Known about the structure:
The longest helix is centred in the first third of the chain and has 29 residues, at 30-58. This protein has 2 domains: 2-93, no CATH class; 111-350, Alpha/Beta hydrolase fold, catalytic domain (Rossmann fold, 3-Layer(aba) Sandwich). A 6-stranded parallel sheet has the order 2-1-3-4-5-6, with helices on both faces. Mean pLDDT is 87; it is low at 307-316 and 321-361. The protein is an alpha/beta fold. The protein has 11 helices and 6 strands.
Amino acid sequence: MLARLQQLTTIGLLLAAFVWVAYFLTNGSPGWAAVGALLIVLGYSLVLAAEFITLWFVNRNDPAPRATLWQHIRAWWGEVVTTPQVFCWRQPFCANAVADYLPQGADQRGVLFVHGFLCNRGLWNPHMRMLRGQGIPSVAVNLEPVFGSIDSYADLVEKAVRRIKAATGQPPVIVAHSMGGLAVRVWLDAYQGDGHAHRIITIGTPHRGTFLGKYAFSPNAKQMNLSSDWQRRLAAREPAHRFNCFTCFYGHCDNIVFPASTAMLPGADNRHIAAIAHVHMAHHDEVFNELLRWVRSTSDVGRADSEPGLGAQGTAASPDGHAGGPPDLAASKLATHRLLHDDTASSSDDHAGADHMSRRG
């Protein structure tokens, strides 16, 4: 469904630009023809600019590192280049160009890819090609219904995990972008999936929501509002040790998930990526290297049911059992833990009567 919608959008924009140019050239106005065509084709860059201006102000009091103006400009340009590649080509026209790879007799740990809001499995085409070249099994899901509740995605994740385990005999590494990280947490909660994932890597996931959620129009987008009732209830059901198996990538230039620290989890290996925007972050080298690091590990310290898997100073353990991530993560994790604690505490009285209304999420 999403691929068809994005096909229609892409073709519609190109046709609109063509008609505009033809009309104004015919009427002897080449200047207007050029300006109009550029606005139609590149208008999304102005929307991205508005998002970056908004996050500049929203992130002012966030504990995440403060981005400079130049870092925002770099991130904006990276997203300007990445957006059409993903939303106008890979997802609408190449969603199934790279098939799931589960070779018979596979003796390597597999990878499960889970995309985010308004995306499909085509987002992961570059990663899946590289993994196939190294003989690493991989599966990418399509989260549908596209505009449904995040709760409805747990079954899709469970089926994909079972496929990989059946083919490899090992729990997979799960890589999730944006809303996909929430879908994985819902799966962990619904199926008690602790121990069925070797490591969970989230990239720009709104673990505590996002400022842009206030403008949401669909059930899943509304669930991603800042500290929504749905997120509070999910967090209240999760055991404290679960996030030991998470690596959470977040960024001060994430133009979709902000304030930036909302993409962090207490007890996780929280990794800050500077000057990279939301979609672009999914294809950052550091993310892919972290994925390979855990695929090739044989230790169980990263699993959700491995409570002792913490390194020094409470940081999440790396595949070799040592503390992972840079040393300044401890302060960031403490700030995230306090924010989560404050959110949960304040919701206990204010939202006790809202549970029935919010069940649709």
